[in-house]
Amino acid sequence: MPTFEIGEKDFLLDDHPVQLVSGALHYFRVHPDQWADRLRKARLMGLNTIETYVAWNFHAPDPGTFHLDGRHDLGRFLDLVAAEGLHAIVRPGPYICAEWDNGGLPAWLFADGAAGVRRHDARFLDAIGTYYAQVLPVVAERQVTRGGPVLMVQVENEYGAYPGVPDEERARYLRELVALTRAQGIDVPLFTSDQADDEHLSRGGLPELHKTANFGSRSLERLAVLRRHQPTGPLMCMEFWDGWFDSWGLVHHTTTPEATAHDLDDLLGAGASVNLYMFHGGTNLGLTNGANDKGTYLPITTSYDYDAPLSEHGAPTAKYRALKAVIGKHAPVPDEDPAEPVPAPELDVVLPDRVALADVEHLLGGAVTRTTGLPPTADALRQWSGFTLYRTSVEADDAVVVVDEIRDRALVALDGEPVGVLDRTSHTGSVPLPRRAGTLTLLVEDRGRVNYGARIGEPKGLVGAVRTARRELTDWEARPLRLADAPALLADAFGAAPGGADAPLAGPSFHRGEFPGVAGTDHLLRLDGWTRGLAWVNGELLGRYSAQSPTRTLYVPGPFLRDGANELVVLELHGAARARARFVAAPDLGPTEA
């Protein structure tokens, strides 16, 4: 029987020392038809292992559902890893961070506030047990001990950084996760990973679990810290940060290939194993991006390019070549290099069809909920992501609307006329109202659930009271909108845009047009002149776009395209110069300096 063990100094594969040179590739951020291509390029760079998180909420978007097919087919992904001759490391959480919505934890788990978050809480642990029973058998049957690629499985993730849990409870919680993991037939080594400092490494693991560290620079110094906390066993950087993620409103983060290569050379030269985070970042398709809030709420961009060695659209970069050269100093690497991708097609697209969101909300919305008192949160409406529409009445002397908390952004209108924006990022919690009575609407957008820190699991929508200059607003109608499926739901609702495609347009409104394409051909969508919203190609929600920095293009995976006519639908929330878009030859991820 094949074996993988943690020795006194080395990882041992079938009793032979092995240095793991791994790269992170999240199957849930890459179209399944592209998995094999990305894995092949990983092998050609010299990697011998692939690491992936498993995002619980990706597989279980609603209570009582669990998907393991199509884009959710973890088993097929791991089989492709094996077919490429690579090993695998699986990190099933339950919490993953990963700049993913809610850190991978299902929002529905905390909707009523009864389940504790990342602690020894009976309801939380019971839900984890159910999750593990659904996903870990897929991993178990593909362990190296059963002839598969999986070498190791992680327990929790960067737990030393999670605040507010006493040390004794931390240990009880981690040991319960170990028991739940082993109960599903996982017999390969288990490990934890934490930032490479004394505080996090001392709080995030257990003596009986192998410790790994996360860092992106000063490799020898960080490995020394890890060795201090783990006197024996192989050293491994589980997240070697070779780039960084992007947030709306900031610059596009990059690191130089030379500096990254130098630090990797030090690490491999010290005999340590490594997992490049990321090898290939991919895309936060749909509404899957997370957010950070350390005093300022910053949602993550749709692109998760990460300045990784393999770019978002699958092209090898200068960093790919630099890291391959470093790996080649320490282990054999293939002579073959990936082919450079051809430029994406360039074409203009006219979007002549239009419909206002206000005219089709009944087609997009679930049932209207009427309440008195506080407005219901999006979570109370079982709306786990996207947009929620709130409606109430105001009087002429109300003068202003003020919210306790907005999560995360709301377009405020009176009788359909825009009057302002409430915004969590800018801490804008009030909007003046015209001096007239009417119907007040707030279109509230969940821009991504916090994926790191104490705010994981918080509700979305309107949170708390909503007041005017003279009273609290207490009579509410609320409706969740199913925008992910908007193109199909609105197929028969579009009409010709007044003024034509070159006239300015006002939102919130949907716009539709067609463009020629070839099945399997990647495209890059550019929406210059548009302000903020969502975009779909052939009914597939690409994600969010914004005139705000940094990202300027949206990646359209080739598998979304078909031969002949293809459909582009755009939801513009504010306004645009004209109803035209462009597909361009190369990505533009934005400025790298403010």
From TrEMBL:
Native organism: Isoptericola jiangsuensis
A UniProt-annotated Pfam family: Glyco_hydro_35
Similarity comment text for this entry: Belongs to the glycosyl hydrolase 35 family.
Protein name per the record: Beta-galactosidase
Keyword Cell membrane: no
Residue ranges of every copy of the Beta-galactosidase galactose-binding domain listed in the record: 508-566
GO biological process: carbohydrate metabolic process
Catalytic activity of the protein: Hydrolysis of terminal non-reducing beta-D-galactose residues in beta-D-galactosides
SUPFAM superfamilies xref list: (Trans)glycosidases (SSF51445), Galactose-binding domain-like (SSF49785)
Coiled-coil stretches noted in the UniProt entry, renumbered to this chain: none
A molecular-function term among this protein's GO annotations: beta-galactosidase activity
Domain Glycoside hydrolase 35 catalytic residue range list: 11-328
Highest taxon in the source lineage: Bacteria
Keywords of this entry: Glycosidase, Hydrolase
EC number: 3.2.1.23
Active site: E158 (proton donor), E239 (nucleophile)
Domain Beta-galactosidase 1-like first all-beta: 375-481
